């Protein structure tokens, strides 16, 4: 739902294991939800995050797309191209 501010516990309940933080400088990091406080809200997590590359405080919190694709592959939702036959 738009405008909702989910907590770490909400993400874990959705089956997510990691969350991605994205900085304006382009750095992208994934954080294990099990390492965070379950009551931490997305807005607070983003505000508290500090970039290890540029030192900027505040990051964009996004779903971890690598984990997302892994989950899709696990459920059969994979569209990887088949290797070309040689020759
Ligand atoms: Zn940065």
UniProtKB/TrEMBL annotation:
Record-given protein name: Uncharacterized protein
Lineage of origin: Bacteria, Pseudomonadati, Pseudomonadota, Alphaproteobacteria, Hyphomicrobiales
